[in-house]
Every structure is written in C-alpha cells, then in structure tokens.
Design brief:
The protein is α+β, with helices and mostly antiparallel strands. Helices cover about 25% and strands about 30% of the residues. The N and C termini lie far apart (about 35 Å). The mean pLDDT is about 95.
Length: about 250
Amino acid sequence: MVRGPRSEVFTTMLVDAHGRVADWAAHWNRLQRHGRRLRIDLPEPEWEHLRPHAGPEGTLGRLSFIAEDGTWSWEQRQRGWFNESVEAITHPAPRWTPKVNGTKHGDWAPYRSAKAAAESAGCDVALLIHNHAIVDADRATPMLLDEDGTVWLPSSDEGGVQGIVAEHLAERLPSAGYPVQRGRLNERLVARCRELVVVGTGLGVARVDAVDGEPMGSFNAFSAHLQTVLSEHYSQPATWESMRPNDEQTVH
C-alpha cells in the first residue's frame, strides 16, 4: 500500500531502563509543529493504551499518529550502536513539497532506502545531498566543525529534519566557545572541515571518519565534547519523564 506524507506524523524517543522517555516536551512540541504542516490535528496521546516499557540500557520508542483512523501507535525496539565512529556514503536527498520537507511524516521509505544503501556499501550512515550540499542524514543530523572553529548545521530551508538532539547540543555550543551557523554544508565546507559528526536519538554523537571513502578531518575533540554534553544531559533526572499513568510522574 502506498502511503503519502500526510498519512502519519511520528517521532522516535529514547527510553531508559525504567521505561521513562527523554525530552518528551521537545518531542511533543515538534510533533505538533509537524502535524500542523501536514494538516494533521493531534489529540494528546492516551498513554494508558501505549504502555512504554523498560529495556536494557535504553531502547528506542517510535510514537506515531495515524491520520486515517485517528489513533496513536507505539513501537519499541532495542537501540543499536551508540557514540561510535562511522563511515558514510552520500545519497540523493528525498524531496517532497516545501511544507512536507523536514517533517517526520508517513512516506518514510526513502529514508529507509538511504540507510539500506549505506549498509549495502559496507558503511553506517547515508548523508543526504541536495544541490551539492549535505541537508540531512538517514536517521541523524549532520554537524560540521569548520577550520575557523564555527559549527555548521543544515538550514531548515534545505529540507532536513531539525533533530531534538542536534538542537539541544547547538544551544550549548556557544558557551563552550563554538559559534553556531546554519546554512549550506557544501562540498567546499566539507572538504576543509576539522570534524564532521552526525547526531541523533538512536546514534548519539557519531564521528564521521570517511565519506565515500575519503577521510575526514583528523580532529576529534569536538565529537568528544558533544558526547560529554549529551551524556550529562541523559544523566539529569529532569531529562526523563514517565508516560505510564500509574507512575508518580505524568505527561504534564
């Protein structure tokens, strides 16, 4: 069955060993924003029917709203590798309409195909290219440390998804001496970069060692710093929220 973009809106969250989810407020805000762009009206999730559960060393939970029947769906799976160095390929970025580009929507097969293409090439991640620039990755957000110390993220106008983890890290970079710029991660910028990483809920902070077989910059302090910031974030009790109605914590 062919599913169009407006058939669904979803988000993927980290679930800890106690069955709590990370950054619920940020995920819910993004779900609402993306739903409005997709013309999907979202009711609040009925967590008593969804039941997130505990998993060893954290799992990933996919919360989606199916527009056709007006119901929420929850799927939970084990997280794979995390905070590791990776090799990447370049792959054409999927394109839809301007309102659909950059949302977590129902026609997600092209992103899954990009991931499969990377794995078929013996790599870990696909960097998605449009107009000779990196605009996204198959399940993460690219971040690039330029030779002048500036950190670049793809602009939202380029059509990539604004990741929850990437936004959290970007907010904290200026105070650590890393100015942040959003724009086009073009070939020239990538070729001269000191370090390229991809960050996301499922991958953590992954340093990109090579793209299409070409080595990236030899600097690694940037990725190490991001991993420390993310680890500290996940160590904070305020990051986690129980969505199970019988627990002391609730959605609001």
